[in-house]
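Table S2 (text version). Query chain:
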Amino acid sequence: MQLIFLDTETTGIEETDRLCQVCYRVGDEVKMEYFKPPLPVSVKSMSITHITNKMLENKEAFVGSTFETELQKLLSTGILVAHNCQFDAKMLSKEGVEIPQSICTLRVARHLDAGGVIPEYNLQYLRYYLDLDVPGNAHDAEGDVNVLYAVFKRQLSKIQEQTGSEESAIQKMIEISSTPSLYKKFNFGKHKDKEISEVLQTDRGYLEWLLKQKLESGDEDVDWIYTLKHYLGLL
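Corresponding structure-token output:
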């Protein structure tokens, strides 16, 4: 199966936001386009991606574009590879793009870091933590795809050492990506950098409170919800 390395940039991160830039790589071929979204790019998003509404005003919509048709055809038989795949898949699904199989390099990164040594798992942090020599700017879809590809190759090599073949390693990565990640340490709040198992013993109420907050607010961070339920014995 073909691997489709993909990244999107969007008008924002709220439920109503949509994509405005898409880049994907298949083999050595890279394709990137800007699209005019059905709502304006937020100022916050512009400050991160440097994609402005003026840049997009004469671009075509993603839906109905040749780019969309070609991407959907690739994804129908291939495997999407993305960092924090849930986000990109959700953005694509808003445009009617279906994704049968995927690999999330964020979840794979957490899986490989069995000892919880790596402080952060965002794509650019991994780029420098793993000392990857990759061209491209952060928060640009094409630049992020370059980093994504390099991170994936490193992960694939590590898992292939365990499974014995590239094919079985890719299947293992799909399996890891299909289930929520289990955090080992808090990366925020009053217990930042502490082991969650330790906090469970000293401040169980904090875990219960945090889970309640996430559930009541409609937070879609399934990895943290899964983690909190796991430690609280609710699974």
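Notes on Table S2: The radius of gyration is 19 Å. Residues 180-235 form one domain.
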